Amino acid sequence: MSDKLYDTVEELGQLQNLLKKEKALVVYFSHEQCNVCKVLKPKVAQMLKKHFPKVKMVYADTMKSPEIAGQNRIFAVPTIVGFIEGKEYFRKSRSIGINELAQIIERPYQMLFEEN
């Protein structure tokens, strides 16, 4: 795993490939004009790295990649969508708490990666 906290997806095909490949994926939808998004994004990335290191996070700019936003029904930023084995598991928009997000991810993370 790299030191990079997240990658950027710019094409719908990239995201579709990740959804097939990754057991757990968090997609952070926002754009450069959103100041709240800029503050929240590194906090989400750090939380995932610290508590859920096997969850991959990617960033999708809704202005630069409108087809990704459209296919995922993104109408507000920031929106964070979590996928488990390619299926949408949760969706949070606008007012998002880091602790709330961690609680949502904790159970499926334990089931996927910690229970054998």
Question: Can you tell me about this structure?
Answer:
It is built from four helices and five strands. The protein has 116 residues and is α/β, with parallel strands linked by helices. The protein has one domain (7-114): Glutaredoxin, CATH 3.40.30. The protein has a five-stranded mixed sheet with strand order 1-3-2-4-5. Strand 2, helix 2 (35-51) and strand 3 (56-61) form a beta-alpha-beta unit. The longest helix has 17 residues, at 35-51. The model has no long low-confidence stretch (mean pLDDT 93).
Unreliable spans: none
Distance from N terminus to C terminus (CA atoms, Å) equals 22 Å
Strands of the largest sheet, in order across it? 1-3-2-4-5
Beta-strand percentage? 15-25%
CATH second-level architecture: 3-Layer(aba) Sandwich
The strand count comes to 5
* Count of distinct structural domains: 1
Please, what is the average pLDDT? Answer: 93
Order of helices and strands: EHEHEHEEH
Structural class: alpha/beta
Could you tell me the CATH topology label.
Answer: Glutaredoxin
Outline: globular
What name goes with the CATH superfamily? Glutaredoxin
Number of helices: 4
Query: What Rg is obtained from the alpha carbons, in whole angstroms?
Result: 13 Å
Q: Which labels suit this protein?
A:
alpha/beta, Glutaredoxin, 5 strands, 24% strand
Would you summarize the structure shown here?
The protein is of the alpha/beta class. Helix content is 43%, strand content 24%.
